[in-house]
Amino acid sequence: MKVDKEKIAFHKGALTTLMAERRELVKMLTAVNSLMMAHIKSLRELGVDLKKEARAAVRR
Asked: What confidence tens digit (pLDDT) does each residue in 17-56 have?
């Protein structure tokens, strides 16, 4: 069986790039989640019932 070193290198390079992209996506999701949680906390402190508002939004 002939091993195509060029194809192997291409796929390894693609995986390396995709793993780096996935790491950056996780960082972005973590940052967005942290910001969302901070806003949720502030809204709760201001007396907003988010569960009630979510149920009302579904009914609309």
From this structure: 999 999 999 999 999 999 999 999 999 999 999 999 999 9
Cα 2 to chain centroid, rounded: 40
Query: Phi/psi at 3 (nearest 5 deg)?
Result: -95, 125
Tokens 């790491």 belong to 23
Give me the domain span that covers residue 45: 5-59
Contact, 37 vs 43, CB < 8 A? no
Does pTM top 0.85 for this prediction? Answer: no
| Cβ–Cβ under 8 Å, residues 43 and 53 | no
User: What domain count does the chain have?
Assistant: 1
